[in-house]
Design a protein that fits this description.
- The chain has helices at about 5-20, 35-45, 55-60, 90-100, 115-125, 130-170; strands spanning about 20-25, 50, 80-85, 105-110, 115.
- The longest helix is centred in the C-terminal third of the chain and has 42 residues, at about 130-170.
- The protein folds into two domains: about 5-125, Alpha-Beta Plaits; about 125-170.
- The protein has about 170 residues and is of the alpha+beta class.
């Protein structure tokens, strides 16, 4: 790899570290190519990505970035999993680690906050962005449906009374 290629990789990694909601660092020693491809597919489906890069270049790219605290985790065979959604990458990696013991989570970063393996697991257990939006919409919609029911109730009561009076008059 020549100097221009290295500079390009450092620039790409810098953009990843800058724009990602979460970055998870894991050791992947012993994974087969098929297992790694499976991880990449799952991560892509969740809206994230997986990147294997030279640790030295990743450390250079981390300089001055909010998640610079993960530089100490970059030794040995490491893989970076990242996503804009602050939960997606952590969820996919945790699910993958449950099924595949060859991969070990070393830690990660969520913005400026450094995460240890337990922190990555805690982030993975948080509801996703879509789940949070759905719960907020449900909370907003509940009072509206109650209000609509309350407004419609008197009309339903009047209709019930009128039909009862009609039945009495007919009898």
């Amino acid at each position: 790899m020549d100097r221009a290629q290295k500079e390009k990789v450092v620039e790409e990694l810098g953009q990843i570290f800058e724009s990602s909601g979460v970055v998870v660092v894991a050791r992947y020693e012993g994974l087969t190519v098929a297992e790694m491809q499976g991880l990449r597919v799952k991560m892509r489906e969740a809206g994230g990505a997986v990147r294997v890069a030279k640790n030295r270049l990743a450390k250079i790219a981390l300089e001055g970035k909010p998640c610079a605290s993960i530089a100490g985790l970059l030794s040995g065979m490491t893989v970076l999993a990242y996503s804009e959604d602050p939960v997606a990458a952590a969820k996919v990696v945790q699910d993958f680690v449950k099924d595949n013991k060859k991969m070990v989570v070393l830690g990660g970063a969520m913005g400026k906050a450094a995460l240890d393996p337990a922190g990555v697991e805690a982030v993975a257990n948080m509801p996703s962005r879509e789940e949070l939006i759905a719960s907020v919409v449900a909370c907003i919609g509940a009072p509206a449906s109650s209000l609509a029911g309350a407004i419609g109730a008197p009309a339903a009561n009047i209709a019930g009374i009128l039909s009862t009076l009609e039945d009495r008059a007919a009898a």
